[in-house]
Amino acid sequence: MQNIESLSDLFDAVGCKATFYDVGRYITKITPQQVVQFDKKQQIYPYSFRKQAWLACVLTQSSGDNSATNQVIWFLRLPLDESGCLNLGTRDHFIKTIVDKIMHKGTEQGVQEALEDNPYAFQPDQDRLASFHAILARDLKQPASEYLDAVLTYLRNANASLGDDWQNLGVQGLADLAARNEKAGYEKEVIRALCSAPDDVRFPLCHALEHHLPSSAVVKAVSNEMTDSSATPASASHLIRAIARSDFPNDLFIPLFTMLGDITDCSDEQLELIAALVSKCPHWLTAQGQLLRIILEKLAHRDDAQLGFKHIVAELTQQPETRQACWNILRSPHASAALQKAVADLFTPSTQTLQ
Predict the structure, then answer these.
(1) 3-class secondary structure for the chain?
(2) Which of 97, 148, 220, 314 could bridge across to 176 with cysteines, CB 3.0–4.6 Å?
(3) Averaged pLDDT, 222-236
(4) Most confident segment among 6-15, 74-83, 236-245
(5) In three state form, how does the secondary structure of 308-346 look?
(6) What is the mean pLDDT of residues 240-252?
(7) Distance (Å, whole) CA 239 – CA 244
(8) How far apart are the C-alpha atoms of 20 and 132, rounded to whole Å?
(9) What pLDDT is recorded for position 212?
């Protein structure tokens, strides 16, 4: 087998055309130029999430078509170094494990079974997997799944309450609705679902919408739902994901700050909202420094402060867009006593007694 020094070399060696998607924070197609740059450590990985590159590699035999039956999809998590570049030692170890398996089983079977028991492989959760397949089918100009028609029929039935007959709707149909909304013009159906459907329908739709840039009408609909008297921090943790790729909407300022409440208390529901903001909307926290300060103060005031605080701070300081803003607040002389203590505890090694 030829000399293999990158992921691209690996896929060339096994006769596959590779298309890459990032499936970390959002699902985003990676351009061929970006692949070359991060694969050879010429640039940092463009979509770092929790210090890893979360990759979906769509492999198509060079002699075949783009049909689903001719594709193999590898889901990989590869660690990044301190500068945000692919860790080449880990990448090379991954390549070696694949080459060894292909040499043992042959190219075709090896590619199919390459990730069995591989430490870098992972399986996305149901929502993310449905969104990935919806986006991939759209990008390959393949038809949507059979479940989309049922979702459209349900949302277009003006004479029926959306509280009825939703149990048979598939998550894949909701993911297809989100993926094809912009080109197919499903905005009316999307907004009706967000505003009127049961939570078992609209929350999975919110999770599917997070991978797409929302229209101003969708942002407005979510903002209106957040101001509704029935909205809670728990429901908001799902709703904001539908507009996660937008800039911070000014209409969310009052309802979001109201839901977060006083800095000296942090309920489990508020913790759900905070986790969603940090993982899905870090750019909002950079744009709204006061929002980030409230989040850090609330975490520091929880009874289990070190558990949530340490995890959230680690995530914030690992993300390029929030790292500096987070450290500015943690080092501020205006921080509360609780926040100062939580920060000090970050750098205090836990004491362990040897028995």
Answers:
(1) CCCCCCHHHHHHHCCEEEEEEEECCCEEECCHHHHHHHHCCCCCCCCCECCEEEEEEEEEECCCCCCHHHEEEEEEEEEECCCCCECHHHHHHHHHHHHHHHHHHCHHHHHHHCCCCCCCECCCCHHHHHHHHHHHHHHCCCCCCCHHHHHHHHHHCCCCCCCCCCCCCCHHHHHHHHHHHHHHCCHHHHHHHHHHCCHHHHHHHHHHHCCCCCCHHHHHHHHHHHHCCCCCHHHHHHHHHHHCCCCCCHHHHHHHHHHHCCCCCCCHHHHHHHHHHHHHCHHHHHHCHHHHHHHHHHHHCCCCHHHHHHHHHHHHHHCCCCHHHHHHHHCCCCCCHHHHHHHHHHCCCCCCCCC
(2) 148
(3) 94
(4) 236-245
(5) HHHHHHHHHHHCCCCHHHHHHHHCCCCCCHHHHHHHHHH
(6) 97
(7) 9
(8) 12
(9) 98
Within the chain, what is the greatest distance between any pair of CA atoms?
71
| Residue the block writes with tokens 């039935």 | 157
Residues 6+ apart with CB under 8 A from 120: 76, 77, 78, 90, 94
Q: Which of these ranges, 115-119, 152-156, 332-336, 341-345, has the smallest mean pLDDT? A: 115-119
Tokens of 314: 């680690």
Q: Work out the pLDDT band at 58, boundaries 50, 70, 90.
A: very high
Domains in the chain: boundaries: 7-113, 126-346
Tokens 């499936």 map to which residue?
23
Overall fold of domain 126-346: Leucine-rich Repeat Variant (1.25.10)
pLDDT of residue 354: 36
Amino acid occupying residue 189: E
pLDDT score recorded for residue 172? 98
Tokens of 204: 């999975």
How many angstroms separate the CA atoms of 62 and 58, rounded? Answer: 12
Question: Which pTM value belongs to this model?
Answer: 0.91
pLDDT of residue 353: 39
